[in-house]
Amino acid sequence: MNNWHSIEPLPASSHRKPVDSFLQASEVERELNRAVRGEVRFDRGSRALYASDASNYRQIPIGLVVPRDSVDVIAAVAACRKFGAPVLPRGAGTSLAGQSCNVAVVLDFTKYMNQILELNAGERYARVQPGVVLDALRDRAEAHQLTFAPDPSTHNRCTIGGMIGNNSCGTHSLLGGKTVDNVEELKILLYDGTQLTVGATSDAEFDSIVREGGRRSEIYSKLRAIRDQNAALIRARFPRIPRRVSGYNLDELLPESGFHVAHALVGTEGTCVTVLEAKLKLIHSPPHRALVGLGY
Question: What does pTM read for this prediction?
Answer without folding.
Answer: 0.89
